Amino acid sequence: MKPVMLITGGSAGIGAACARIAAARGYDLALNYRSDDASAEAVAEACRAAGAAVLLCKGDVADPQAIADIYDQIDAQYGRLDALVNNAGVVDQTAKVTDVTHARLRRMFDINVIGAILVAKEAVLRMQAGGRGGVIVNISSAAARLGSGNQYVDYAASKAAIDTFTKGLSDEVAADNIRVMAIRPGLIETELHAKGGEPGRADKLAHMVPMKRKGSAEEVAQAIMWLCSEEASYVTGSTLDVTGGR
Ligand code: NAP
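Output (structure tokens, whole complex):
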């Protein structure tokens, strides 16, 4: 049986790029997304054309019941889980800390932190039960290092939590042959920036990147897929920047 990979936020951007590469590399897939059925179907079709079985699991990772439903579907269709790309995440409009609201913080941390931790928890339980180990790649951000002052400090703080969670979880499960890493993407051309009200953000800030350009979702996905591969078999607890040097 093929290895099975769950990608949260698999309908767009970095998650969709991971799905396409994973399908070509022999994984069967569970693709989670929140709302965009048409994009999810298009990614699934491309992956099926590359030979993968694809289970679409629509659901908001901020909702614990939705996470339970996602894993019920994976258990029923595949009965195993070998890799998790813990990628679903959101930004918000640019705002100073003095302007953030409780509702904004709740949404940001429910999706980016609590959702990610609960998704990882359920993956670990299955990887431990399967006895084959597994791989978890959490998607952080360069913002965790940069702080994102005057842009979205709350987003940066949510990603810093992911970095710390990655190290702690990796220590807990290393002896079970479960590797846990994080990737910190930099300025990557996806729809994320438009969703935060700044469609041109990657182009606007590209001059600040030592390599003087934005990155692509595929460039981030290649690094994620390397961490998932046997080529990275002695890597765990690490956080890898994919930022063009920023
Ligand atoms: P994107 O193009 O906006 O795609 C986000 C994906 O996540 C979509 O599939 C979306 O599904 C899904 N999603 C959003 N909220 C969700 C929720 N509550 N539950 C389930 N799925 C949800 O974003 P991206 O740029 O690929 O970002 C992917 C990850 O990389 C995020 O964690 C982001 O913070 C991180 N990152 C991105 C950049 C960058 O420059 N792009 C930089 C650093 C870090 P729907 O479309 O159906 O809502």
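The two ends are 40 Å apart (CA to CA).
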